Amino acid sequence: MNGICTLANDHVYDQLIALLNSIESLYGQSMPVCIYPYDQQTDRITAAIRQRPQVQLYDDAASMARWDQFARDIWDAHPTARQRWHHPDPSYYHRIGTHRRFCAFDAPFERFLYMDADTVLLNSVDAVFAELDHHDWVVYDFQHKDPSHVYDLDSTKLSQIFAPRRIETEIFCSGFYAAKRGLFDAALRASLLASLQNGEAEVLYPMAPDQTILNYMVMKTGLSSLNLAHSLPESQRTGNSVTSPHFQQRNHLLYDYGKRLTYLHYIGLPSKLFSRLCAGENLDFPYRDIFLHYRYLNQPQPVLSGSRQSYAAPLSFQQRLVKKLAQLNLFES
């Protein structure tokens, strides 16, 4: 069975609802969805999905515990992660909840498409699932243009583990990927962990913890992977990121020079921005109207107070990343 997965808690509630509504606008209730809980703050999510029989909140505690421990063991092997995180608590792990997305390798779908909660689906993904007939891993992004947010490029071991050509072509963003259940069983996880504990952990990038581990897992095991950003002809290939200013909106969909986007990723925009907008603040950000359409697909949109104000705040790490991505056109063909 095919299904779509995501990762969420109540802090990203509004974004999650927009994603769920966008999936339903294309598939109705025929596409099952599984939400992996980032943490225990899921009361609003639980209430919201009661009327969505095709949506479930993952509750396999043993599965989540296994992947949580796997991630902790990896970061315990990293020589500089704690210094990079700058956190006073010695038991702290940066964004440890993001690794819960790895539970998709356990259940519930035989084949799945993972989408970050800060995305909206704008086109059918049947073709993405079809590629899993020929590949183990399918992505659609341009992260390969900036490997510095996947691996530590200063590590001398990186080129010993992965040939530079592989770094240039195979790395991917962890916000949208299709894969299969059971790709990483206990024996394979143990083998990967052993390699990392034997010195290879230093190549991982600690500030994007799930992304760097996923890339390492896929590349180290040599899975058959496909990036549609490489394989699609230019006449079909599109961007997908909110950092791209040129998309055109028609009928609540987006087009990249006439080509319909598969999905839009609001990468780097903080969840509080969406929460404040949904609470009635007239905050502006790229493709805001697309978000509002899907967030309130089945209910009236909020009345926004005051004049439309551009969102401006001190640049966080994520926003600096977005700025860099925009400068490099990372999500454009």
From TrEMBL:
Domain of life of the native organism: Bacteria
Keyword Oxidoreductase tagged: no
InterPro entries cross-referenced by the UniProt entry: Npun_R2821-like, Nucleotide-diphossugar_trans
Gene3D superfamilies noted in UniProt: Spore Coat Polysaccharide Biosynthesis Protein SpsA, Chain A (3.90.550.10)
Keyword line: Transferase
GO molecular function list: transferase activity
Keyword Transferase in annotation: yes
Protein name: Sugar transferase
Upper taxonomic lineage: Bacteria, Bacillati, Cyanobacteriota, Cyanophyceae, Oculatellales
